[in-house]
Amino acid sequence: MKIVIAPDSFKESLTALEVAQSIEGGFRRIFPDAQYIKVPMADGGEGSVQSLIDATKGELLEVEVTAPLGNKVTGFLGISGDKQTAFIEMAAASGLHLVPFEQRNPLKTTSFGTGELIKKALDLGVKKILLGIGGSATNDGGVGMLQALGASFKNAAGEEIGFGGEQLQQICQISLENLEPRLQSVEFEVACDVNNPLCGERGASAVFGPQKGATPEMMQTLDNALAHFADVALAQQGIAIANHAGTGAAGGMGGGLLLLPNVQLKAGVQIIIEATRLAEHIQDADLVITGEGRMDAQSIAGKTPVGVAKMAKQFDVQVIAIVGCLREDYNVVYQHGIDAVFPIIRQLNSLEETLKQGRENLESSAENVARLIKLKM
């Protein structure tokens, strides 16, 4: 039996490779002689860089960057084996994992460090930048990133606005005059993990704000601030970012990136599927196992498990998803190629303890899934 294991990471608990290893560990207890092909996946968030480095025989480079709260941390980016393409994941500089639980506040967090990673890529002389924008701690519309690249956002007093999503409502003037000129000669692909618009009930603040620490009051403030940013960008730069699919990704980073030249927003999981040659691994498989930290209705909007499932269905291969937890609206995934879903949490604990138990819970659940499959054989 050939089993392809192609999961995303379990955010703040396990990397995609660790998830794949844990699933294999559980299955091997029941099917020790099966052939296991591990293909760590991503959709633009954490793990995207490593997946692409592995696919192109590239290397990882460390860079000091500004974290979401303004402190300095060591971030990273990848470069392809032929040195022509840089791989960046926003989470490496502006990720949620860089902000302690008690300090999460998207009114204050900045994407400035992501801009610093882009500048480093330009310094490397690449011809193409592939930027994954999942897993962010920010809701600043990518304004911090743009400031790091030379764009200017001034308030009514003619002063540069500060860091954080709440600052966007102070924007009176946008200038791209001093934007990094090397961006003109680089192809820029943005791997979005969702297709949400910038604002509104499906926008960045309403859908993703709570996981970044936003209260209902903060969500309204942030949504209004992003809408104001979009209005000024349209009026002064002629760039429409409010309703474009994907502009709500990463706290509006998808929208802010449209102020740069040569930028294309794409489904992140498709980029990773192509780079990892997933189709070649799946075409003769007996079973595909995928997964993510939390499965819900948003999973059909560009997330890894559904992307993997759609690929598997091209070859009539059954797909099982093993996930950290479920929301009650998760069952829509059954209409998009996933045949069965199994959550791994075995007992009620604090979030911190549950995240620490990810490997143990995952192996146990994988074993139980394998036992179920064996009953049918």
From TrEMBL:
Family: Belongs to the glycerate kinase type-1 family.
Protein name (database record): Glycerate kinase
Any GO BP annotation: organic acid phosphorylation
Gene3D superfamilies linked: Glycerate kinase, domain 1, Glycerate kinase, domain 2
NCBIfam families: glycerate kinase (TIGR00045)
Species name: Actinobacillus ureae ATCC 25976
EC class: transferase
EC number: 2.7.1.31
Keywords tagged on the record: Kinase, Transferase
SUPFAM superfamilies noted in UniProt: Glycerate kinase I (SSF110738)
An example Gene Ontology molecular-function term: glycerate kinase activity
Transmembrane region(s): none
